[in-house]
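Morning F.,

Quick status update on the modeling queue. The single chain you submitted on Monday has been processed. Sequence for confirmation:
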Amino acid sequence: MPKFEVTATSLEGVRVITPRAFEDDRGWFMEAYSLSQLDSLGMGTTFVQDNQSLSRQVGTLRGLHYQLPPFAQDKLVRCVTGRIWDVAVDIRRRSPTFGQWFGLELSAANRRQLLVPAGFAHGFMTLEPDTEVIYKVSADYSEPHDAGLRWDDPSLAIDWPPTVAAPVLSDRDRALPLLSAATLF
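Structure tokens below.
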């Protein structure tokens, strides 16, 4: 029996991965990641780094971030405490879905993960206080290749949850460019 349920999305390469949990009276156990299992499903990616964030306030928005080649990153994102609205945006200029986005709720309770391939910007908004997110990346961080897009770019029209009147943003995220002015794939 497969250890993961994998669901395709409207964006080529973006996948929802739900690990199978084994439950008993003590609680549950799951393999959150298995290279061999995902490889057998055609999604094997060697990840080189785990990143973790804690967002204290509801409505904290992180993103939309990506790295440019040769440090472009595949990401496997999961929420281990709380809930997030997670978004991937296709930034591959030659893609038929260029500028389109996919979003879903990831939570500690639903245990879903989002596989975001290189060529996509990624961001999330917290839906509960003290939310923790862990994501694996396939390339090391490289400041010269670090890039991003404005979360509220009207050309993207991302349907962010109306959690708060204004999201909590870093100065960096507040200053990110629109899609039309960004360096892309």
